């Protein structure tokens, strides 16, 4: 075993401990995939990341991202949380304010400005209508009738999200889904607020087959939803989405559009700093 630096950060909330927690192991070189996966399962958080020396000369660091059950090529709140931990450990952004993260999905640009972090959303690897039998199954999982689902789309950008649009934020908040029916589906639900000065949408994320059934605040899902909602003329950026409300969190995800590129941002707070023996 080796003593390594360790951080826990809170992502997507201006109030510490009201967003989504991330565990970050620094100096992760030398750890095997099995060791990383075992530790990620042990932390019992939605994701744990490991910072390593980059293999690309363009990257500032390399990250491996693990849920409790598997490694992910990309995830949103782990991207922002890892960048925050790397900066706090002595890393510095480039002259343009950018940090370049290397992960299995490629090089991800992270913008650091005015205390906020934002990542450039990677392209969707599957994007399009969901087959009708699956939409009916999702309605059953969510505990609602099929006709309450306005639209559904594949939104895969690492995680295998299926986006589901309901008519209102209240409908999203009232969902009481059945995790026993979900299998391995990853379902993201969104609905608009009628009048809310702070947030335009409420988002919830349900992950079947995982110890974390409802994720608190989910950057990859919000990135995919943004692409879909903007393309469908349902949302006009910039806007802010809230997530985690039903869990007692206060997640705020900021969506902006820059020359056709979606940026997903929010506040990240460092909460725990220490060491871990791995």
DSSP strand content: 35-45%
The residue fraction in helices comes out at 10-25%
What is the count of DSSP helices, taking H or I runs of 4+ residues? 5
Compute the number of strand runs.
Answer: 17
What structural class do you assign from the helix and strand content?
Answer: alpha+beta
Q: Describe the global form.
A: globular
Low-confidence stretches: none
- Sheet bearing the most strands, described? 8 strands, mixed, barrel
Write the element-wise H/E pattern from the N-terminal end onward: EEHEEEHEEEEHEEHEEEHEEE
Radius of gyration: 18 Å
Distance between the termini: 5 Å
Tell me the strand order in the biggest sheet.
1-2-3-4-6-7-8-17
| Mean pLDDT metric | 96
Task: Outline the structure in words.
This protein is α+β, with helices and mostly antiparallel strands. The chain has 5 helices and 17 strands. It has helices spanning 33-43, 76-88, 132-142, 169-174, 219-231, and strands at residues 3-11, 20-25, 48-52, 61-66, 71-72, 98-103, 106-113, 116-120, 126-129, 151-156, 160-165, 186-192, 201-207, 214-215, 239-243, 251-258, 261-277. β15 (239-243) and β16 (251-258) form a beta hairpin. The longest helix is centred in the N-terminal third of the chain and has 13 residues, at 76-88. The protein is globular and about 55 Å long.
How would you summarize what this structure contains?
The chain has 5 helices and 17 strands. The chain is α+β, with helices and mostly antiparallel strands and 278 residues long.
Descriptive terms for the model:
alpha+beta, 39% strand, 5 helices, Phenazine_PhzF-like, 278 residues, 19% helix, 8-stranded mixed β-barrel
